[in-house]
């Protein structure tokens, strides 16, 4: 089955090539799927998409006209594809329902620790030969209340790690994880209660109609003054304008962000010697108490291998049987 792999990067192509077997003929392109690049899929039976790709209704119509029958996502999330439109066109879509949850969970802890212990500032001072400690004071995580938004595989992994620090855990999730309660003594509360009582809040929920801009001005106003906010989930869960306001007011003492609501035109691309035309992002990254990483939370050998293996398995199941167990629609 001839498949075009959109948004190929140096970090994922080797894993895909190693995992490839069966009746697959893979063609790689660095191009992101959008209106201007959809024509590249002409002559293929399947395509594979990453989080940076954008499969809107109009793009899907063109893919259908080119003969695309299958779309294999190299991600858990599928907010970048119009599933309803794909279903109406008969295009089958499959995702990677799970890969190493520790990759993202550990990255969330990394962001928290780097911000708390002011590692970036400390390194800058060292390079300046300034070894004073006056501006590098952090706090013990032990005994602090950590709120976890979403306790799926990644949120649960984060909870277990942070439980090891001796933190009190609170969570918001419509579905309570009974096993996690036994393992960590985590208590499930309303979103408002979590925000009212947490010293640290870490977001691990999916992006959907209910969670889009869940974190906004009204919710920030409920938070403890000086709370740390970590987001390794999806950018649009946070209203960035309201976040900047909360940072400026001191409500949020620090934010660790692996995602950004308008990241598609920024992350995964080389912008050296180019101006990023996004004033909101420019303001956000200029904040001394904000640490941004470019959607790299998943970037471990274990996670990349799992993503590649599942992606290739989905394509092979379609090639041999016309159906994949990971189909979303």
Outline the structure in words.
There is one protein chain. By secondary structure, the chain is α/β, with parallel strands linked by helices. It has 2 domains: 2-99 and 301-321, NAD(P)-binding Rossmann-like Domain (Rossmann fold, 3-Layer(aba) Sandwich), CATH 3.40.50; 101-292, NAD(P)-binding Rossmann-like Domain (Rossmann fold). Helices cover 35% and strands 15% of the residues. The chain has 12 helices and 12 strands. It has helices at 13-19, 57-65, 83-89, 101-116, 119-127, 153-163, 178-184, 191-197, 217-220, 240-249, 279-286, 301-321; strands at 2-5, 25-28, 46-49, 70-73, 92-94, 145-149, 168-172, 187-188, 200-203, 227-231, 252-257, 290-292. The strands form 2 sheets. Strands 8-7-6-9-10-11-12 form a 7-stranded parallel beta sheet, sandwiched between helices. Strands 2-1-3-4-5 form a 5-stranded parallel beta sheet, with helices on both faces. Helix 1 (13-19) crosses helix 12 (301-321) and helix 4 crosses helix 6 (153-163). The model has no long low-confidence stretch (mean pLDDT 96).
Layout of secondary structure:
Layout: E1 2-5, H1 13-19, E2 25-28, E3 46-49, H2 57-65, E4 70-73, H3 83-89, E5 92-94, H4 101-116, H5 119-127, E6 145-149, H6 153-163, E7 168-172, H7 178-184, E8 187-188, H8 191-197, E9 200-203, H9 217-220, E10 227-231, H10 240-249, E11 252-257, H11 279-286, E12 290-292, H12 301-321
Parallel strand pairs: 1-2, 1-3, 3-4, 4-5, 6-7, 6-9, 7-8, 9-10, 10-11, 11-12
Helix pairs in contact: 1-12, 4-6
């Amino acid at each position: 089955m001839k498949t075009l792999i959109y948004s190929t990067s140096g970090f994922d192509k080797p894993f895909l090539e190693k995992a490839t077997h069966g009746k697959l003929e893979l063609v790689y392109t660095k191009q992101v799927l959008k209106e201007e690049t959809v024509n590249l899929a002409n002559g293929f039976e399947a395509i594979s998409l990453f989080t940076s790709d954008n499969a809107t209704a109009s793009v899907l119509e063109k893919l259908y006209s080119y003969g695309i029958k299958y779309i294999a996502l190299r991600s858990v999330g599928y907010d970048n594809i119009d599933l309803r439109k794909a279903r109406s066109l008969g295009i089958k879509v499959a995702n990677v329902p799970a890969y190493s949850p520790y990759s993202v969970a550990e990255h969330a802890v990394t962001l928290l620790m780097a911000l708390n212990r002011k590692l970036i500032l400390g390194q800058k001072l060292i390079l300046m030969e300034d070894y004073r400690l006056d501006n590098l004071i952090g706090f013990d995580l032990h005994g602090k209340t950590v709120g976890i938004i979403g306790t799926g595989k990644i949120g649960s992994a984060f909870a277990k790690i942070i439980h090891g620090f001796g933190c009190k855990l609170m969570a918001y999730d419509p579905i309570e994880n009974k096993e996690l309660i036994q393992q960590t003594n985590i208590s499930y509360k309303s979103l408002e209660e979590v925000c009212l009582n947490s010293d640290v809040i870490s977001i691990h929920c999916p992006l959907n109609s209910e969670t889009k801009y869940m974190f906004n001005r009204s919710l920030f106003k409920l938070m403890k003054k000086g709370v740390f906010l970590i987001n390794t989930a999806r950018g649009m869960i946070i209203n960035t304008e309201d976040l900047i306001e909360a940072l400026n007011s001191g409500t949020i003492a620090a934010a660790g962000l692996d995602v950004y609501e308008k990241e598609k035109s920024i992350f995964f691309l080389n912008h050296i010697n180019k101006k990023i035309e996004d004033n909101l992002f420019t303001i956000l990254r200029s904040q001394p108490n904000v640490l941004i990483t470019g959607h790299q939370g998943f970037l471990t050998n274990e996670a990349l291998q799992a993503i590649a293996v599942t992606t290739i398995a989905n394509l092979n199941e379609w090639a041999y049987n016309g159906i994949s167990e990971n189909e979303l629609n």
